[in-house]
Amino acid sequence: MRDDLYEQLNEKEEHYWWHIGRRKLVLEMLKKFFWAEKREFPARTLDLGCGTGIMMQELKPYGKIWGLDSNAKALHYCREKKAGDFLFKTDLEQKLPFKKDYFDIILCMDVLEHTKKEHFVLSEARRVLKRKGYLIIMVPSYQWFFSYWDKVAGHYRRYDSKSLKIILQQTGFRTEKISYFNLFALLPAIIFRSIKSGQKLAIKDFSSDFVALPGWLNNFFLFLSRIERILINFISLPAGLSLLVVARKEHD
Q1: Tens digits of residue pLDDT in 22-60
Q2: What is the distance between the alpha carbons of residues 56 and 34, in angstroms, rounded to a whole number?
């Protein structure tokens, strides 16, 4: 991902609807699957590809947090926030610097699409995850929607529910929940990116798609995101701009 996007991410992720919605969805899935089992605290959580650290801040009350990212600027923002208990600068496509069966929870939020070796990354996540531990994944959806924005963000691919479920099976995970989300944002994003694609700019010259919104519109999108999260607790949405998976390591 371009370095300038980390600065924008750090500025916007606290209040922007997209970032807030995904964090709240993670917390609700942990409540539904992990914390519902009345597990002992503190939990050990690894944020694999932790970015600028705001998700780690959200999880601090629930245990120890390890953050791992390959980008020095991202980790700089994590340190500024005092996010995470332990931070590591590591290539995500190398062996993780942790022993086997170490973590209760691993987050992999908008990370897999940035890696060439997705199977290796998931296999390493499985190695360091405890038996019956949970892996939460978020990825962008639909390869047919691959655009300039994916190139700007450093994506190699996008996913659909069937292909991601197969990859998880191949790497030894059992899928507990899989759902698209940000359904309400899919059509606007298609229109917006179709128009923006017509600019014919070099990849380095495209601006971020996280455009500034008036407060009322950001709040409206937050409201729609909340409705989707309520639905996802009971059903799986059939379409959306992003894809969520809750998976579990069942055996060694």
Answers
A1: 999 999 999 999 877 766 667 899 999 999 999 999 998
A2: 17
For the chain, the C-alpha Rg in angstroms (whole number) is: 17
Of 92, 51, 242, the closest CA to residue 159 belongs to 242
Tokens representing 169 are: 């099976």
The residue ranges of DSSP E strands in the chain, in sequence order, are 43-48, 63-69, 86-89, 103-109, 129-140, 174-181, 242-248
pTM: 0.93
Q: Given the DSSP bridges, would you call strands 242-248 and 129-140 parallel, antiparallel or unpaired?
A: antiparallel
Burial (CB count <10 Å: 0-12, 13-18, 19+), residue 224: middle
Q: What is the CATH number of domain 3-248?
A: 3.40.50.150
Distance CA 200, CA 34 (A): 46
Q: Are 109 and 221 in contact (CB under 8 A)?
A: no
Question: What is the C-alpha end-to-end distance of the chain, expressed in Å?
Answer: 34
Write the CB contacts of 247 (distance below 8 Å, at least 6 apart in sequence). 134, 135, 136, 137, 168, 173, 174, 175, 176
* Placement of tokens 């937050």 in the chain: 222
pLDDT digits (tens, 9 = 90+) for 179-220: 999 999 999 999 988 888 888 777 777 777 788 889 999 999
